[in-house]
TrEMBL record:
The name this protein goes by in its record: EAL domain-containing protein
Residue span(s) of domain EAL: 93-339
Organism from which the protein derives: Halobacillus faecis
InterPro entries in alphabetical order: Cyclic-di-GMP_PDE-like (IPR050706), EAL_dom (IPR001633), EAL_sf (IPR035919)
UniProt xrefs under SUPFAM superfamilies: EAL domain-like
UniProt cross-references to PANTHER family, sorted A to Z: BLUE LIGHT- AND TEMPERATURE-REGULATED ANTIREPRESSOR BLUF, CYCLIC DI-GMP PHOSPHODIESTERASE PDEF
Length: 339
C-alpha cells in the first residue's frame, strides 16, 4: 500500500521502527534528556531511534508534556533509509489517532446529497455533496478537525472531491448540478493542485458545467488574490464557483465584483425566521440588490419553515436548500413535492 500523498507531499503512516531526526537546538531542554536512544549526533542534528510507534508517542508526550510545538523534524525509516519531514504536532496527532489517518488515506467515504430547488418552478436544480464515512462512525466535523490537526487537510479535501464526483456519476442525471465544498488553503498553486480534480472529472465522464465548487464557511480568507486565482482556474475549465455561507464579510460589492462567483449561498443564520426578523430581511434585501447588479445567482440554505420558503420566494431568491425541502441522503429523491 502506498504511504505517500503525491499531491500534498506528506506521508500518512509512520514506520513501525525507525528514527527521529531533531535539530540540535530543539533536542535540548533544561534539566531533561530526550527519552529515546541517541544513535547519532552532530552540531546540526541528533538522531534518536525507536523500537515501535508507541515508544515514539510516549516519548513525545513525556518530552513536550502539555504543549506540542510546531517545528519540523524528519522521520527515518531504518529499513529502507528513506526519510520525510513532518511537523511535530502532525506527528503527534497521527500517532495518537492512527485509525483516523488510515480512514483518510483509504478514502472509505460516501456522499450524502441534499437537494437544491429552483424557487421559481419548485423543481430540483441540483444537490450539495456532504461527506460521510461509509460506516458513519466518525462525524464529519470530527474528521475535518482531525485532518486540520494532523496536516491531512489536502488529502481529505481531495478524497472528498473524488467521492462527490463519483456520486454525481452514479446518482444524478446530466444537467443536475452538484455543489462540492473545498478548502482554499489546500490549493497552493491552482494550475497544479487542481489537476487531480480535473482528472477525476474526465475519469467519470462528467460535464464540467454540472460542477459547482464552493468555498466553505470555516475557511478564513486572508489572501483574496489567491482565492480569486483558484476560482478563475475552476471557471476556465468550464466549472462554476460559489461562495458558501455568505455573511457581511463577503457581501460587499467590491468583494463580489473582484471574485465574480456564479452563486452566493446565504448563511443560514440570515435565513432563520427571515419572514419575521427585520434585521435578516434588511441583509437579504441588500445582498439581493448587490447580486442583481453583478448577475450572480442567490441560494438560500438552511430553510426549515414553510413561512421562510414563501417569504424568500416573494423576495425573488433563485434557489433554496434545507430540511424543509429535503434532508441529505446517500441515494437522493429525484422528484420533490413541496406544499
Amino acid at each position: 500500500m502506498a504511504t505517500d500523498c503525491q499531491y500534498c507531499g506528506t506521508s500518512v503512516f509512520i514506520p513501525e521502527q525507525g528514527a527521529l531526526v531533531l535539530n540540535s537546538k530543539h533536542s535540548n531542554k533544561e534539566g531533561s534528556v530526550f527519552p529515546l536512544r541517541l544513535t547519532y549526533e552532530s552540531p546540526e542534528a541528533k538522531i534518536y531511534t525507536y523500537n515501535n510507534k508507541d515508544e515514539l508517542r510516549l516519548a513525545l508526550v513525556d518530552w513536550f508534556e502539555e504543549t506540542i510545538p510546531d517545528y519540523w523534524v524528519h522521520i527515518l525509516n531504518t529499513e529502507n533509509s528513506q526519510s520525510f519531514p513532518i511537523s511535530i504536532r502532525h506527528l503527534y496527532e497521527r500517532l495518537q489517532y492512527p485509525e483516523l489517518a488510515e480512514l483518510i488515506h483509504s478514502g472509505l467515504f460516501q456522499s450524502h446529497l441534499q437537494p437544491i430547488v429552483d424557487m421559481k418552478n419548485n423543481r430540483v436544480y441540483g444537490y450539495e455533496s456532504l461527506l460521510r464515512t461509509k460506516d458513519l462512525s466518525v462525524p464529519p466535523g470530527e474528521l475535518f478537525s482531525y485532518a486540520s490537526r494532523s496536516g491531512l487537510q489536502s488529502m481529505l479535501d481531495q478524497k472528498a472531491r473524488r467521492t462527490a464526483v463519483k456520486a454525481k456519476s452514479e446518482h444524478l442525471n446530466s444537467g443536475d448540478k452538484i455543489f462540492i465544498n473545498f478548502l482554499p488553503s489546500t490549493i497552493y498553486v491552482p494550475e497544479f493542485c487542481l489537476k487531480h480534480t480535473f482528472q477525476i472529472v474526465k475519469e467519470f465522464n462528467i460535464d464540467p458545467e454540472d460542477l459547482v465548487f464552493e468555498v466553505v464557511e470555516t475557511e478564513k480568507i486572508d489572501d483574496v488574490e489567491h482565492l480569486k486565482s483558484i476560482l478563475e482556474t475552476y471557471k476556465a475549465s468550464g466549472m462554476k464557483v460559489a461562495l458558501d455561507d455568505v455573511g457581511s464579510g463577503y457581501s460587499t460589492l467590491e468583494m463580489l465584483s473582484l471574485l465574480q462567483p456564479d452563486y452566493l449561498k446565504i448563511d443560514r443564520s440570515y435565513i432563520r425566521n427571515c419572514h419575521t426578523d427585520v434585521n435578516n430581511q434588511a441583509f437579504l434585501f441588500d445582498v439581493m440588490e448587490r447580486a442583481k447588479q453583478l448577475n450572480i445567482h442567490v441560494l438560500a440554505e438552511g430553510i426549515e419553515l414553510q413561512e421562510e420558503w414563501e417569504w424568500l420566494q416573494r423576495l425573488g431568491v433563485d434557489f433554496g436548500q434545507g430540511y424543509y425541502i429535503g434532508k441529505p441522503q446517500a441515494v437522493p429523491e429525484k422528484e420533490l413535492i413541496l406544499p
